[in-house]
Amino acid sequence: MNRFEDMMEHLRNDTDIPEQVWTRYTETVSGLPDRKPDTSSHRGLRKHLWPAAAAAVLALGTVSAGAAIQWSHGLEKRLQVSSQQQQEMEADHMTAFVDQAVTQNDVTITARQSIVDNYTAYLSFEIEGFSLKEGQVPEFSQVDFFAGDGNFSCSAGFYFDETAGSENHSSYTLEDGTLEYHVIMRSNEKGYFIGNSIHVEFHDLGIYTGKTTAPAVQAEGTWSFDWTLAGCGSIKTYSLQASLGDSNATVLEAEISPISIALSYDFPYQEKMESSLDENGEETFYQTFQDPPMFAGVRMKDGTVCTGISSMASMGYAEDPGVYLYSTAFKPAIEVNQVESLLFYRNSPENESSCDERNLYVVPLEE
């Protein structure tokens, strides 16, 4: 028995792993080719296709080890998921526990968890062995992300507790003394992330100096991670054909998961002129296109109105100039089965999170 097999056997003895999960693990491992993982150092441009060494084992490990691993504290709080939602995401394989660790200069970074649906991927990394003093903000000198052919957008940074007040070291440091780094990736290509190999690479951890230059490095090193993203493409799809007042827009379809929504509109292409000020303060004009009423949020079956929940929205016309597409991640996550209606803005509000319902179009969802 090699070291990996010994580790997995100990895990099975110490943890209540369902028999069907263990059977899936053994069947998958037995079918893997005998090859060594790629240990070369990858550096280069972002959004490049990178091979994932031993991807099948890693992807399976995210499932079989799930019973032994806690949810990322930061993701749990960021997405405000209940224990029931956690169980549902685990059962649907929307979330996976990676548990892949690399140590450099006494700092250990662990790829902890992913949550993936057809259009969105949340990743959480845990940092141990790095302490912050009062007023300090952590920063890497460089972080690279590679997935598929690069057809995605990405937002990333250290998680900090917004409820802790000002952005300081105490809001970055969790109760157990660790830090978390979160990545949100979005793609307009349906199912893009599920089953795709991913490479994430962190370089030189330090303290933000308040300048655009590199941080004051405290721990030099390169922490590299490769695995295959698990996920769930099972979402609720609604055929709506809902007209939005006199806006000339019709919502055709909505695809909803706990962490994102994708919408298609029938909305003829309309050009318009807008203006802005250049670097000299002079007004310049440019041509763009008219947008349909934007997604505002949801109304739940208990009457709760949730607006201002969009994160990293993308929008624009498909190849057909009459079909307008909109998609966004959710923050926080939602309980899809409890959504009663979709909400759309009649006019752009000054404050999205406190939007008056009189400024909303309401589109009921029918089972």
Describe this structure in words.
The protein is mostly beta strands and 367 residues long. The protein has helices at residues 3-14, 19-30, 55-64, 73-79, 83-91, 169-172, and strands spanning 95-104, 107-116, 120-128, 138-147, 153-158, 179-186, 197-207, 216-228, 236-243, 250-257, 260-266, 271-277, 283-289, 295-300, 305-307, 310-317, 323-330, 339-345, 360-364. A five-stranded antiparallel β-sheet has the order 1-2-3-6-5. It has a five-stranded antiparallel β-sheet with strand order 9-10-11-17-16, with no helix packed on it. It starts with a helix and ends with a strand. Residues 1-68 have low confidence and may be disordered.
SSE layout and pairings?
Layout: H1 3-14, H2 19-30, H3 55-64, H4 73-79, H5 83-91, E1 95-104, E2 107-116, E3 120-128, E4 138-147, E5 153-158, H6 169-172, E6 179-186, E7 197-207, E8 216-228, E9 236-243, E10 250-257, E11 260-266, E12 271-277, E13 283-289, E14 295-300, E15 305-307, E16 310-317, E17 323-330, E18 339-345, E19 360-364
Helix pairs in contact: 2-3
Point out poorly predicted stretches: 1-68
Q: What's the β-strand tally?
A: 19
Q: What is the averaged pLDDT score?
A: 81
The run of helices and strands is HHHHHEEEEEHEEEEEEEEEEEEEE
**Residue share in helix:** 10-25%
Q: Which oligomerization state do the chains in this entry correspond to?
A: single chain
- Tell me the overall shape: globular
User: Structural class of the secondary elements?
Assistant: mainly beta
Radius of gyration, whole Å: 23 Å
Distance between the termini: 52 Å
H/I helix tally = 6
Question: Main sheet?
Answer: 5 strands, antiparallel
Strand coverage percent: 35-45%
Give the strand order, joined by hyphens, for the main sheet.
Answer: 1-2-3-6-5
